[in-house]
Amino acid sequence: MQLEERCAAFGEKFKFFVHSGSCDGENRKLYNIRIEKDHVPKEIRPYYLNYNKAVTEQECCELLKEDGSSVKYHNEEQIVLYVSNTFDVYFNFTHMTDAWKIGNLKDTKPEEMVKKIAEEDTDALNAAKTITMKALVERYGNAHSKRAFFINDYKSYLLNCFLEEAHAAVSGCDFRM
């Protein structure tokens, strides 16, 4: 395809990357076909975004198996929110489920919404404080898997497994994938 040459013809450098993506929201459905790190061809690795920082699920489990901390999400300099087509509001941390919902622009008082945003107060963020990484790995980790992850994406994956199981227990509906 001569992409490098074609880009150079108009004064640009060819840039391309591959990324395994996070493992929450709709991407969660792809867990069973998630790429294994050693299956990434050597020719592609230079284009795999932060390939050197990707680890296998097995390595994630090893790194986190004695970790007594909890998953923490925190807004830094900017607060970025998602607003759904039904006016539900979420932090941009992960996917849009009831546990992550801050409120609804039509139904939630503005003062309450601002307070929840400032205090980072959602069911999911509060639940995250109640379970350690060690417990999440023991419960949901696959210490034999070679699937590629970035460590923070893996933490989110484990936390969302926990949240989905908790939701299923409360609602009587198992919607895990």
What does this structure look like?
- The protein is α+β, with helices and mostly antiparallel strands.
- Helix content is 33%, strand content 8%.
- The chain has six helices and five strands; from the N terminus they run αβαβββαααβα.
- It has a three-stranded antiparallel sheet with strand order 2-3-4, with helices on one face. A two-stranded antiparallel sheet has the order 1-5.
- A hairpin with a 4-residue loop joins β2 and β3.
- The longest helix has 21 residues.
- The protein is globular and about 55 Å long.
Give the topology:
Layout (H helix, E strand, L loop, with lengths): L2 H7 L45 E2 H8 L16 E3 L4 E4 L9 E4 L5 H9 L4 H6 L4 H8 L7 E2 L1 H21 L6
Antiparallel strand pairs: 1-5, 2-3, 3-4
Helix pairs in contact: 5-6
Characterize this entry briefly.
The chain is an alpha+beta fold and 177 residues long.
